[in-house]
Design a protein that fits this description.
- There is one protein chain.
- By secondary structure, the protein is of the alpha+beta class.
- Among the domains are: about 1-150 and about 320-350, no CATH class; about 370-460, no CATH class.
- The chain is about 50% helix and about 5% strand.
- The chain is built from 19 helices and six strands.
- The chain has helices at about 1-10, 15-40, 40-45, 70-85, 90-105, 110-125, 135-140, 150-170, 170-175, 180-185, 195, 200-225, 225-245, 250-260, 265-280, 325-345, 355-360, 400-405, 410-425, and strands at about 10-15, 145, 375-385, 390, 435-440, 450.
- The protein has a four-stranded antiparallel sheet with strand order 4-3-5-6. A two-stranded antiparallel sheet has the order 1-2.
- β5 and β6 form a beta hairpin.
- α4 (about 70-85) packs antiparallel against α5 and α6 packs antiparallel against α8 (about 150-170).
- The longest helix has 23 residues, at about 15-40.
- The chain starts with a helix and ends in a 31-residue tail after the last strand.
Length: about 475
């Protein structure tokens, strides 16, 4: 076993799949930063609000006022440099830090695909993704042969995301009630062709079960060459359909682009050769030269140019050092990272109560689109010195998205209560008591009392401990 592992860790492969992944990933991320600016989301989500919900342990991460625009610009610029492979190592580290900072600025904006981007960016910090199709590969004459595990590490991260998303769908609401898909699909009645079909209950179950089977099987189908092509077609169809049906931003395109990394380098060579042959078929003599090179990144060259690259994937063979300190460090860091990724989604087992209700251990576990929660939270402030009490207008402190998220998530409610405590202390109330009356409806059920209205939330400090102020869920959801 040790010999097999050693042989695998010392085996090399062509860098083309990883390089193409880098280009697509960087391009999509650069576009995403421009999209935030175009739609005014930077102002709306990170500049205009006065209060931001924090992740436990990252309370120090806050928006930078007007400098937040500069942070988004830096993130987009670094993504562009990642795409073209210019000063790649510095660019990807800058992108990882800036994007992760943006993600941590306000918990309100948490999305699984933002977390996925941070994970991928972290992995790329350790990989030679600039070995092909990059300015760095020309400038530093980099070898196009890289350790096989460099590519497999991205594949493994993708497999975790898909498989864990499939495991999460093995619950009674998703499979036996077609919830929350039933709620969402019925709302799409105005879609051409699909709209009428989406009103049928049978389609709700079809989408629920096919979504579960897709997530559980697609990583295995992509790993094996015999099923890879049909699996990739399934990836494209599935994610385009989800893009049409649900407003989930760039995530479908990230997953489609990412799935390409499962193809071998020889497939890329065939595609590039086809593109070059198609290009040569034009009648303009001056344009009859390759526009895509499988060797080092290069501009179109003249037929007499002696530096014309070799299109063979065996054009360079460089033996990778087997026991360098840097390589051992990289393998150790990535191994620890993947162990954490495999364990974190199961941390909810440390808590009692229904996961979808309490959400203790819900985030960072690849539970994608499993809940539809709606609720309200009415906060009451009591001045114990005067017995005066009054109710809070949440809109005076939170923007609509923050208020919506706060009303259904216990850690948001607790953090907001402490913010109110600090605010009214500045207003002259020495020791305000904060209570909340809240109701939440989960996956189409009737609203139920959510937070114990008799608990003064200022007496509870945010922590990883079980939140005893959450009232029990009256229903039952079976599954992982």
């Amino acid at each position: 076993m040790r010999l097999i592992l050693s042989k695998y860790l010392n085996s090399n492969t062509d860098a083309a799949p990883l390089a193409v992944f880098r280009i697509l990933f960087g391009g999509i991320m650069c576009f995403s930063m421009l999209r935030f600016q175009y739609y005014g989301w930077i102002e709306q989500l990170y500049v205009a609000p006065d209060f931001f919900f924090s992740y436990l342990g990252f309370e120090w991460v806050k928006p930078l006022g007007d400098y937040t625009y500069g942070l988004f610009f830096l993130c987009g610029l670094s993504a562009f440099f990642v795409m073209i492979g210019w000063q790649y190592r510095l660019a990807i580290i800058t992108f990882f830090l800036s994007f992760s900072y943006i993600e941590l600025m306000d918990k309100t904006n948490y999305l699984n695909h933002y977390y996925f981007v941070s994970c991928i960016a972290f992995i790329l910090c350790f990989l030679p993704a600039n070995a092909r199709y990059s300015f760095d590969s020309r400038r530093y004459n980099l070898s196009p042969n890289i350790p096989r595990w460099s590519i497999d590490s991205i594949k493994f991260m993708l497999s975790i995301v898909w498989f864990y998303a499939g495991l999460a769908k093995l619950n009674s609401d998703w499979l036996l009630e077609a919830q929350p898909l039933s709620i969402w699909l019925k709302a799409k009645y105005d879609l051409p062709v699909l709209g009428a079909l989406l009103q049928k209950e049978s389609f709700h179950y079809l989408f629920s079960w096919s979504g579960m089977l897709y997530d559980l099987t697609i990583p295995f189908l992509l790993w094996f060459s015999a099923t890879r092509k049909i699996a990739f077609v399934a990836v494209v169809v599935f994610h385009i359909l989800t893009w049409i049906l649900f407003p989930i931003g760039i995530f479908p395109w990230v997953m489609i682009a990412s799935a390409l990394i499962f193809f071998e380098a020889s497939t890329y060579q065939q595609v590039f050769n086809w593109i070059n042959n198609l290009w040569r078929s034009f009648s303009f003599a001056e344009l009859r030269r390759p526009i895509v090179s499988f060797g080092q990144t290069t501009l179109p060259y003249s037929e007499s140019n002696s530096s014309k690259p070799n299109l063979s994937i065996e054009s360079k063979t460089v033996t990778t050092p087997k026991n360098t300190t840097a390589r051992k460090f990289t393998l150790a860091v990535l191994s620890l990272f993947f162990i954490v990724q495999l364990l974190i989604p199961f941390r909810h087992l440390l808590y009692e109560g229904e996961l979808f209700w309490t959400e203790e251990g819900y985030r960072f576990s690849w539970r994608v689109m499993l809940m539809e929660k709606a609720g309200y939270a009415n906060f009451k402030v009591i001045d114990p010195d005067t017995d005066r009490s009054f109710y809070v207008q949440n809109g005076n402190f939170l923007h609509p998205l923050q208020e919506k998220q706060m009303a259904t998530q216990p850690d948001f409610i607790l953090e907001y209560a402490h913010h109110l405590e600090q605010h009214y202390q500045r207003e002259g109330i020495r020791d305000p008591q904060i209570y909340v009356e809240s109701y939440v409806a989960l996956n189409g059920r009737r609203s139920e009392p959510f937070i114990d209205p008799k608990v003064d939330l200022t007496t509870i400090k945010p922590s990883l401990k079980p939140k005893t102020f959450i009232l029990p869920f009256k229903g039952e959801i079976k599954g992982f």
